[in-house]
Each structure stands twice: as C-alpha cells, then as structure tokens.
Write a structure and sequence with these properties.
The protein is of the alpha+beta class. It has two domains: 7-26 and 177-289, Arc Repressor Mutant, subunit A, CATH 1.10.10; 28-110 and 127-170, Regulatory protein AraC (Jelly Rolls, Sandwich). It contains ten helices and eleven strands. The longest helix has 20 residues, at 151-170.
C-alpha cells in the first residue's frame, strides 16, 4: 500500500495538464477471477498466504478466525470481510450449522495497474445490513461466472461487479492523501503506460523518466512517494502478480509462465515468485489442481 504522499515531493512540477492526464486515461477496470458458494462440511483453514487480488468472504451460519498483519479477530455469522491484495493472511472457518462461505477474488485497477482500493481505509469487518448486501451481490456475481457467456450475461456481470465494489466502498473511508496521490499519478501516467505495455523489455529507468520529462533521480523520488516502491520493484511486482493471476485462470506450467512474463529462466522466476507469495508456482499449481482455491 502506498505511504502517505508528501505533496512537497512534486512541488513546482504539478500542472493542471498533468493532473488532467490521469483523468484522461482514468478508467476503473474490475477483474473477477473466480468465486463460489461453498458448503463447509468440516473445519476448513487456509495456509498463510499472500495473493495478488482481493478476497471477499461473506458468512452464513458460520464463524471464522481472520489473521492478517497485526490483526487477529473473529468474524461472526452474517458478517463479511475483505482481505487486501498482497497482504499476508490466514483464514480458519469454525463451527456452524450447515455453514456456507460466499466468496470471490477480484481486482479493481486504475490505469490497468494501480490498486484503486488502496485509496481507501478498509475496515476489518462489514456488518449487517451492508454485509448482507455484499453476500447477495457476491452470490449473484458467482452465478454469472458459472453460466456460458453471452452479451447480456457479460453486461450483467459487469453491472453486478461494479455494484459490489460500490457497496464495499460505501463502508470504507477515503484516505486524506488520496487526492495528492492521484495528482502524482497524473504526472506518472505516460511512464506507467510504457511499463505496462513493454513487459518483455528490460526495465530502462532513463526511458521511463524521459516519458514524463524528469531526471532519473527525480522520477524515482516521485514514483516511490506515489506508489510506495522504486520503479524497478514496481515493474517486477507487476509481472509477478500477472503471473500469479494467470495460474488461477489456467493450468500452466512454471516454465511457460517464466517465458510468458520474460523472466531469465524457470528457476529465477520460481525463486522470485516464492519470495513474494511465500509459495512456489509449482506448489500453488498443485493446490489449485486439488481444488484449494479459496
């Protein structure tokens, strides 16, 4: 999650046209990877994990223990919670009478790569009546994922996904730094687009900085303050997260992923993947094949 943005980092360089630049390209992109309405026949738990997408879980007739960062709390029957992307966490579903978990994995991005929900403070729990609305929308969204795609069903899926995100945000608080961070992204938009569209190329700091008419040192400072990491780390994480999402979509080998996302070789890719997500791509592939998807 980006740190609080200091407006003085770009003082004297932010212009109306630069701020407008991000709005010219600003389109929210909602990607729903998968979901389910899953009966729980016994106590179920996940391993400690870190995922490149949001995990929404809604409860019916069940309680669960949620551990993430420094938080450790119980979600009661009828409540819901949202685990942010790239946050290490562990979930344990406890006792219940005919318990059901309604869940989905999704991302909401700005400029096709910026985590839009990172502009908001997300509460640990959503309670009724909001959690009931989230459960109903999540269930409806899962239903659209299970049916053959048609133009009308695609429209319905997009509509429900947007309503689900809108309901989530209604229970959150916008960060006081959001406007300043968005303004900084206006300056960085051409560089971000360049990085997103050229994953096959070795990252060129001078090229990226030149896209926004900044020196390499100035560009790195603005970039890190706005996005919480250096440009090179951002580019690497973008490729790793895309590779992890691809594993959830398709049964693809680590070697194929390494080639697709232009890592040096399979060993290098697997090492970087495990460093970020705490599991090798081969081990994650086996878990997904065994049906452990949520």
């Amino acid at each position: 999650m980006p740190p609080p943005f200091r407006e003085d980092v770009v003082e004297g360089e932010m212009t109306t046209s630069a701020i407008g630049n991000v709005f010219d390209h600003a389109r929210l992109h909602i990607t729903v990877l998968e979901g389910g309405v899953t009966p729980l026949r016994e106590i179920h738990r996940t391993d400690w994990r870190l995922l490149p997408f949001y995990v929404l879980v809604c409860h019916r007739n069940v309680r669960s223990r949620v551990r993430q960062r420094e938080l450790d709390y119980i979600a009661d029957d009828g409540e819901a919670y949202l685990i942010a992307r790239n946050v290490r966490h562990k979930l344990t579903w406890l006792e219940g009478n005919e318990p059901v978990s309604i869940w989905c994995h999704f991302n909401v991005t700005l400029l096709n790569s910026i985590d839009w929900l990172s502009f908001f403070e997300i509460p640990p729990l959503f309670r009724p009546p909001l959690s009931t609305q989230l459960a109903d929308l999540c269930g409806e969204l899962v239903e659209t994922l299970s049916l053959p795609l048609t133009p009308l069903r695609l429209l319905r899926r997009e509509t429900v996904a947007l309503e689900l995100v809108s309901r989530i945000v209604s229970g959150c608080t916008e960060k006081h730094t959001a406007a300043a961070t968005l303004a900084a992204l206006g300056t960085l938009t051409p560089a971000l687009e360049y990085m997103r569209r050229h994953p096959a190329e070795k990252f060129d700091l001078a090229e990226a900085a030149g896209r926004v008419n900044l020196s390499k040192s100035r560009f790195s400072a603005v970039f890190k303050q706005a996005l919480g990491m250096p440009p090179g780390a951002y580019w690497r994480n973008l490729r790793l997260s895309s590779a992890c999402e691809e594993l959830y979509r398709k049964d693809v080998s680590p070697k194929e992923l390494a080639e697709q996302f232009h890592f040096y070789d399979e060993f290098h890719f697997s090492r970087m993947f495990q460093r970020k997500f705490g599991i090798t791509p081969a081990a994650l592939r086996r878990k997904l094949r065994n049906g452990d998807r949520w």
